[in-house]
Amino acid sequence: MEWMILPFKRYVDFQGRWRRKEFWMFQLLNILVGLLLVTPAIILSPTSSSSDFDSQGDGFSASADFASNFSESPIALVLIGIYALYALATFIPSIAVTVRRFHDRDMSGWWYLGFIVGSALPIIGLLIALGLLVVMAMPGTPGSNRFGPDPKDPFSEDVFA
């Protein structure tokens, strides 16, 4: 649990390195909170019927009906609101954790912006998003790098300085 809360203590710290364990535990916390709040909201919201779709099939009226379905269930609306506040509160720590994870790979944090912009591209966006996942799963560089000492090496002279 300590690894899940640590990014909130280092809220806007974009310096240093971050281990894989710390990164993935924070991502696990985000997934668990999302499942805990969004799944009951979807279950508690009234379901839409096939007549909700418009005759043109473009889905615009269906999305409006989907939003109105949540307003019919106040509990679901509150759960979605709480999740929206949580997502807003974790926006900057998520960026900071990812940048520090790039630092552990001895990559600049600006790579993250490149991955985000690249994943928005229509055809190759999915491949770029998978590339980001692969980079986050790769081990950090052993020993010190330009962003700091190795966080996995407790005997490094720079860790206690």
TrEMBL record:
Residue intervals passing through the bilayer: 23-44, 75-99, 111-138
Keyword line: Membrane, Transmembrane, Transmembrane helix
InterPro entries reported for this sequence: DUF805
Keyword Membrane in annotation: yes
The name this protein goes by in its record: DUF805 domain-containing protein
Naturally occurring in which organism (per UniProt): Erythrobacter fulvus
Source lineage: Bacteria, Pseudomonadati, Pseudomonadota, Alphaproteobacteria, Sphingomonadales
